[in-house]
């Protein structure tokens, strides 16, 4: 099996008992941290036990090679291409294993596996950890005392998708060791309109470094499958010099200050890959042979777009069929075993869109339990169709739309959702005796992701000398 990283260790020790131990510094890391672990297979005591009182080795010396292999797996148990940095520490046989950060990271649950091969025997240790599930942004990286600091908290689930109803608590410790607590429970942390984003406001009083601890409880969410995609480049547009090195683009401005002030502007577009987060910054300012650097990076992500559409054309044998174009308590209906097909949903998507979810909606009711509606969709003009699904019993129209997730029926593309290809067929299915079924509205909802439009930023810079 291929590993992310293989590390060879020369040794000239003595026959020793091996007890590998893998320890995580913590089990939760924020996105701008590099998760760090310690791997040890002979501890200090065992090592000392092989020496006599004068530091000389006991027993017969053995020389050879040991191999340490590391593997980093994602939440699906698939090997990632994350290459840990392995460093030999002094003392027994102890190694530091550090995961590198990157410009583009997928938040989630990961597992580090370390294999030690010694004398033909493989010793394995594993450690699970969370990376970037909770992160904190502030509008600015530095605040003046008395200025309110607005915190933006981002909460993701173990697959890296935003969590809308997280239960968050946060403690801010100021330099005098005074603590202020915030929580969604007491309303000091509030959910924003955008799923996964939460805000809190903190009044800065004391100068110095503040420490912030956050925990978030989330309900598990299983409705999305991430597709494997290659990372794309971040598009950056600016009047400044743009240098590219590795996965980083650096924008540099040379500015003459006017009244100690200047401003810089740039635009960027986030690649259409979910659920990755992209690091911006930290920004640096060189002045008077000094350098100021922001405390940390900022993260941006692409958000999915949801679009609902109604049919605008139909064919078949239901009565008053066009009434299913609109939710208005006026119905298409039938009392016989008949089928009807709806189409021309008029979906349009930006170029390069990836379809992540397709749902068929139905606002309907049955006059009795003698008759049901089944439906199926087609993505190639009616040649192939999904299997029939039965809409559950519902005996009055309460204006509720029953959505069925049909994402798994085919590998959806924007072309499969075009007017020439996409159709929804409904079928009344008879028990005995017959009775009426009613369809008020037959919408379709599609979630897609695409490269964001350009976001433009201008920063005003003022130098206090
Ligand atoms: Ca209705
Ligand atoms: Ca209607």
Your description of this structure?
Strands 26, 28, 30, 33, 35 and 36 form a six-stranded antiparallel sheet that branches. The chain has one helix at residues 44-49; strands at 5-14, 21-24, 28-29, 36-42, 61-73, 85-89, 93-98, 104-106, 108-118, 121-131, 134-138, 148-155, 167-173, 179-183, 190-191, 197-203, 211-217, 235-237, 241-245, 248-252, 261-269, 276-280, 284-287, 290-293, 298-300, 305-309, 313-316, 332-334, 339-343, 354-366, 371-378, 389-390, 402-405, 423-430, 437-441, 444-449, 455-462. The protein is mainly β and 465 residues long. The protein folds into four domains: 5-131, Macroglobulin (MG2) domain (Immunoglobulin-like), CATH 2.60.40; 134-217, Macroglobulin (MG2) domain (Immunoglobulin-like, Sandwich), CATH 2.60.40; 235-302 and 451-462, no CATH class; 306-448, Jelly Rolls (Sandwich). Mean pLDDT is 80; it is low at 220-232. Helices cover 1% and strands 48% of the residues. It is built from one helix and 37 strands. It starts with a strand and ends with a strand. The chain binds calcium ion (2 copies). One calcium ion binds at residues 327, 329, 363, 397, 399, 440. The site of one calcium ion has 9 residues, from β35.
């Amino acid at each position: 099996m291929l590993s992310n990283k293989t590390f060879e260790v020369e040794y000239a020790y003595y026959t020793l008992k091996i007890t590998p131990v893998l320890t995580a510094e913590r089990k939760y890391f924020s996105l701008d941290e590099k998760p760090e672990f310690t791997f040890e297979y002979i501890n200090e005591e065992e090592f000392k036990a092989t020496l006599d009182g004068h530091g000389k080795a006991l027993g017969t010396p053995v020389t050879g090679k040991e191999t340490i292999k590391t593997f980093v797996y994602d939440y699906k148990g698939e090997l990632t291409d994350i290459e840990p940095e392995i460093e030999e520490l002094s003392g027994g046989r102890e190694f530091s294993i550090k995961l590198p950060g990157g410009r583009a990271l997928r938040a989630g649950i990961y597992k580090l596996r370390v294999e030690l091969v010694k004398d033909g025997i493989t010793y394995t240790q594993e450690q699970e950890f969370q990376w970037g599930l909770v992160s904190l942004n502030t509008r600015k990286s530095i605040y003046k005392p008395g200025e309110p600091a607005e915190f933006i908290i981002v909460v993701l689930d173990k697959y890296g998708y935003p969590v809308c109803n997280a239960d968050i608590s946060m403690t801010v410790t100021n330099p005098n060791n005074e603590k202020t607590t915030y929580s969604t429970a007491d309303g000091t942390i509030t959910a924003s309109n955008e799923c996964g984003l939460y805000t809190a406001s903190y009044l800065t009083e004391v100068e110095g470094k503040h420490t912030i601890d956050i925990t978030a409880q989330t309900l598990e969410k299983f409705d999305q499958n991430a597709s494997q995609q290659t990372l794309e480049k971040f598009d950056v547009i600016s009047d400044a010099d743009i240098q590219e090195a590795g996965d980083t683009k650096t924008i540099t401005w040379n500015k003459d200050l006017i009244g100690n002030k200047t401003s810089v502007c740039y635009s960027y577009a986030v690649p259409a890959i979910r659920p990755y987060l992209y690091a911006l910054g930290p920004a640096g300012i060189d002045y008077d042979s000094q350098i100021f650097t922001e405390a940390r990076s900022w993260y941006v992500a692409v958000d999915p777009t949801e679009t609902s559409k109604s049919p605008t054309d139909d064919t078949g044998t239901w009565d008053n069929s066009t009434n299913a174009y609109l939710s208005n308590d006026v119905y298409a209906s039938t009392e016989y075993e008949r089928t009807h097909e709806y189409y021309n949903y008029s979906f349009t998507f930006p170029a390069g869109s990836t379809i992540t979810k397709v749902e068929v909606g139905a606002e309907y009711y049955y006059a009795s339990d003698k008759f049901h509606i089944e439906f199926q969709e087609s993505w190639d003009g009616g040649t192939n169709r999904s299997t029939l699904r039965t809409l559950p019993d519902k005996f009055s129209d309460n204006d509720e739309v029953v959505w069925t997730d049909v994402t798994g029926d085919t590998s959806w593309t924007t072309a499969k959702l075009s007017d020439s290809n996409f159709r929804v067929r409904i079928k009344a299915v008879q028990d005995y005796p017959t009775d009426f079924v009613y369809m008020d509205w037959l919408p379709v909802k599609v979630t897609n992701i695409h490269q964001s439009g350009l976001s433009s930023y201008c920063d005003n810079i003022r130098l206090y000398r």
